Amino acid sequence: MLVSKYDDSRLLLALQIDHSRVAGYLAAHWGNDVFAEPRPYSSVVLAAQEHDNGWWEWEIKPSLNDRGYPLDYITDGSLKCLGQLRLDFYKHGVERVVREDPYAGLIVLMHGIGLFNKAYGLLAYMPDHTARPDVQAYIRDQDALRQRVLAELRRSEEFREFSTDEVIWKNFKLMQVYDTFAQFLCNRYPLNNRERQNGPSNTLGDTAVPVAPGKPDVTLTIEVQDGTRAVVTPYPFDTNPLEVSFPARLVPNRSYRTREEFLKDFYKAERISVNYQLQAP
Question: What pTM, to 2 d.p., does this model score?
């Protein structure tokens, strides 16, 4: 979950699976006269939309951190708190996407590995977990699956042209952009709230953003205007402005003695829709 302060007495909880839907929505609207539309379109959009679908297994009955508060993916560290459970449910999520669309599954698989190895070195600001034996076992298992899926894609008429190392790496970078952008949006309330200091920066951690064939990567800058609006430079979307929304729920800002006590508030929580607007300069 992404846990933000809503007001003095309540927390705003955004689920990882809903954050994932925001990433998919950004991917679906990616592309204009400057930025190329992702290709293969439906596979890349599906990968962005489902990249965190494994979290569903935990988020249907979430647990607490060691202080009795709702567990936050950044401040508490999901791997530290959930351990093997975290690795297993992400693996199951990858398997679901591979069954539906092997190309999308490959990108989600690589994203899952990248969460532990600084996105294959692409994102220097991320922590490196590769010294952990359980992470090493996870990466070995997922890399074996990656090689099998890649071989299948390269034999496929539908996906062969998109399965070169160059195109896969470009789509992996796009996946990182969509994920980090969606984190930036879902990681704060309102949009101009600066209390949470450990989320993505307004340059998305200086992530390299693919533009179009033959053009160099760029860095996106998100300049927040107020509680609901931000200007994105350069602007990568197909409509201006782009309206973005995600569901969230409100729970008391307090420590819970037991998981069951928290779940009562979690299931009864008031649901709200958070609405933001992205604009061109």
Answer: 0.96
